[in-house]
Amino acid sequence: MLDYSKLAAIRLGYGLSPVIESPADPQALVATVAEAGPKSGDITMDVARQVQLQVKAIRDENADDRLEQQRALSRETLTRGARQVKRRLARAVRDPGGFGERLVQFWADHFTVRAGNGIETLTSSAMVTEAIRPHITGKFGDMMFAAETHPAMVLYLDQQRSVGPNSRAAQRAPNRNLGLNENLAREMIELHSLGVTADYSQEDVRELASLLTGLYYDPASPRIFLPGRAEPGAETVLGVDYGGEEPARLEDIRAVIAHLAAHEATAAHIARKMAVHFIADDPPQPLVDRLTRVFADTEGDLAAMNLTLAEAPELETHLRQKVRQPLDFMVASLRAIGLDGPDVMALTEQEVRGWLMRGLTAMGQPWSQPRGPDGWPEEAQAWATPQGIAARTDWIIRQLPRLRKDMPDPRDLMHAAFGDAASEALQWAVPKAENAREGIAVVLASAEFNRR
Amino acid sequence: MLSRRLFLKSGALLGCSAAAHPFLSSITFASAPGDNRLVVIILRGAMDGLDVFQPYGDPELAQLRRKLSVGPQNGAHDLDGFFALHPALGDLMPLWKAGELGFVPAVSTPYRDKRSHFDGQDILEAGSGTDMPLRAQRDGWLNRLLQNMPGVESHTAYSVGLDEMRILEGPAATRSWSPATQFRLSPQGQRLLQHVWHDDPLFREAGSQAVQIISDGIEAVNEPGGPTRDARAIAQFAAARLNEETRIASFSISGWDSHAQQEKTLQRPMQRLAAAILTLKEGLGANWGRTTVLAMTEFGRTVRENGGGGTDHGTGGAMLMAGGAIRGGRALGDWPGLRESDLYAGRDLMPLRDIRAYAAWAMHDLFNVQNDILERAVFPDLDMGDNPGILA
């Protein structure tokens, strides 16, 4: 039998650690979530802007050594990106309950921005600092507004290129064929708020796209809204009229996002998504109903949602129904072998890339690069594949021992990872391994360790 | 005839070899899988068929698109005086000339109107109509094909790469591997892991397969670097399996969601698609002549360019076919036209036929599967219509 601290650490956190104690009850657990707020030293858009301006300056100056300058900047940017990955992993490893950092991961995935290059790794990390972390115990609507208007999102879902066809900007440049781009509008309804099963139409997507025109990002300016790019006139989204004033205002975008965030379909969509992520691929309906009610009654208060999850009896009844995604598995492994946050911070950026990020790629979860804006899959079948399990085992055998010189005895590791709750099969198998390295693989590649 | 749900359920209850079921075998005609090979490539993100196979002979095209899909004037390769192949796929021109490349310009799944990638891909891979809730559709149509073929073993079908391939999921056992995966463990370590996986059906099945693949001596594939490396490695791995006892392989190529700067955005996925097809041809050697490749996407894109030099989610789109077994060098099916009144919802290419009908006829001709199985079990409630004659 697992006590609450162990149960919650496995289900809502990153598993057990022999050196970090987990909170003993739901109130204590949710109290630790605030720790996942932004901290000084977390990357912001200021840094990403500087790098983008440097890129432009090198291009504009066009000096003889332009190529070398570009290469040096690109190397530095990659290193900076790896440092952000290292900070995220270190915070996850040392978070006592793990719940706060798991929530950061959940919401960053809900508002996915894909990072395909070095600069995008910086902007997507900045979005976590500026749009996700400040709101994980706040209101969903505030997080949604911060996320949808963040430069990383504006760039990722092509809002940058969406211009009102009758805006001043489009009229000034008739040859540039400026017009609407539906990408952000569609995903804002389909993925971020109402969900695809809700009652909305192509016309709502089109009208929202028209209303969102004006959102913009320019590294040289702090402004995120340019009225000259906005489509004149009012728009009707889900039966409500917005805008129409001249000049257009960011306030109308704030209003439509507040409406989407407060929609009853959004409550049901977010409730189900949290239950799927934290409890079971096919979540128990009573839990989904409770979460939906809490979301609706509290106007999307995420602290109340967090407490509902922390207190859920389904933590116990649906134990190990989820397969850990590769990132969760990696953090859980680092915790189980007794590493703490500072141990992770002591790695070089090159080691982070070679030993950790490459491992995530092989397991099918390259950092910040899900296939599309719907983020990573949730179903067990997507991760517990032959190649996925092989890649996890391979990482345990080849990379994990580099991370700690004095690796624990496999039997101690089993105790650290499961308390007294290791299965009989595991207790039988672990002592029979040929060597310590394979003994550790038997513990960490087992089904029970790869589930939560 | 069995109702579809009952039919699917009976397959699920059976768990492993559906062909052994007395009732199923009685309606299963085909002999053993035979020598023909089928490769299905899922193009994720909604490929713009109008840009891949540019209908430059349609006078409306130039009105709808100013920068994109300009045709031979802009370096595209003329195919038949009406369609031209996008320049980034130029490496495939020898296949077109040899009759080993063809396409259907205007097809779609039954999915309409919400234009969600994720639902669109689920429906494409499930092969279902729109009468069942999406969450209930876990099985893929290639898996249902396997359930209805005799003599099938787990290595008969492979999903290749790290992407989840729902098209192959379901009760019939299949294999799944990624060409870059490494896995070294002593025989004792393998035994111990299988012991601790044993009570968890998902891990037991996947873990045993990993151990099996390693003991078969299947090594990681090492392709030289470059932007198409992953696609080449996947195709090389698939070809190696198909040269053995595998007859069906499936993998995906992503990156087709070209909302902005389409000209630039589509370079990579097109290069990857071309490299994958050419690597298959090279790797398959003489077996290429018995191979059919179908490349399908969830839906097409808007006929008009949008504000960012890209295109938004649409409806009708193109399907690409390749392989030594096909009768290529031509466009199959009709062209709906691009006038306002020709379009779907005033914005999208009008699909003229269900993409599943083409897949069904390909399976019919490749594996000798009967129409009533294809129309009821593999693609429930599909009307296959006339044979479009994909195969030579």
TrEMBL record, chain B:
Keyword Iron-sulfur part of the UniProt annotation: no
Stored PROSITE patterns: TAT (PS51318)
Keyword set, alphabetical order: Signal
InterPro entries from the UniProt entry: DUF1501, TAT_signal
The protein's name in its UniProt record: DUF1501 domain-containing protein
Superkingdom to which the source organism belongs: Bacteria
Pfam families: DUF1501
